[in-house]
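Check this:
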Amino acid sequence: MKRVVVTGMGMVTSLGHTVEETWKGLLQGRSGISPITSFDASEYLVRFAGEVKDFDASQYMDRKEARRNDPFTHIAVGAARQALAQSGLEITKDLAPEVGVYIGSGVGGLNTIHDQIYVLKDKGPSRVSPFTIPMLMMNAASGMVSLLTGAQGPVWAAASACATGGNALGEAWETIRRGTARVMLAGGSEKAVTPLGMAAFANMHALSRRNDEPQRASRPFDAQRDGFVMGEGAGMLVLEDLDFALERGAPIIAEMVGYGSTADAYHVTEPAPGGEGMARAIRRALQTADLTPEQIDYINAHGTSTSFNDSTETQAIKAALGEHAYKIPISSTKSMLGHTFGAAGAIEAAISILSITNSIMPPTINLENPDPACDLDYIPNQARSGNVRVAISNSMGFGGHNTCLAFQRYE
């Protein structure tokens, strides 16, 4: 099997429109969560989120193309362009068939669905945009990135709810390992803070209702957590066959070494008791990476700030890693970014890599009253310096999906 390295990263989040802006905000322990501005949420049960604000799609694509694409595609293209720029990769005519794109989303073009339903209702069927289907379809982001960059290898869209970003990266890694492509641009994108999205998740009683203190609402592993916070964002990595990356003199940021993907087969929204499915995903990632628990230096947790998830993930980490689990620094960056659903696994993979390259781990903010059921080291409230050689990133999704990705310092 071929070795796979990361040569470029891109991010668009509620903390910033670039990797640098987001990383700086995370290390400062700054929250990107605030009252909703994209629509009037005054009558909603939950009125705050981690929105991506003031994103200018015309920086990354033609204005005409931008009008014909949903906002989730806009930020996907932005993050993809950033990742390609850092990698220095030129997709030539000869290379194009060896470059693939795997970009996933949890819900796809939810903004388009909302807007066009109102057009249909208020103005009639003849006024519905002919671009509606290409805008809302789940594969719109991966297809548009392929069109704009010329990538002609395998192009696909993952959809496994909040594990989507992890699955997209994991399957891209597998694609390069088996020699189907030399380069994969992979990740996830989500822009679901819409009237329908907010109402639906609020009515599920899944969201925090701390409307008076939105920046303190996402509090993973805290005893007073009361639900997750909706977030928006996109995260992209350029993955390459190591030999190809060395041949072209690419900037190698880190190496991706492991991937585990499992299902709970238990419940649509609740994780399996004891985190059994997540534990198997962690073990599988370590097995494919040929790593032992003692070699893990940092975990970016799924850590949604819900009662079930945080305690179950804690159990999963302990089940998979044994006594060493108590010695590993862990953080949930959803405490600052909110839960970006299909993008979360990709954004958090990039954050895990940044922890390796910068030897510093972001905090879990708002962790003020630790839950006795969550008794590991969650890096409360302040970033922590430390030698991070190996990091893993966990993701769990509605439907019982679990993924774990493993990265290590390139040597």
About this structure: The mean pLDDT is 97. Residues 4 and 242 are 5 Å apart (CA to CA).
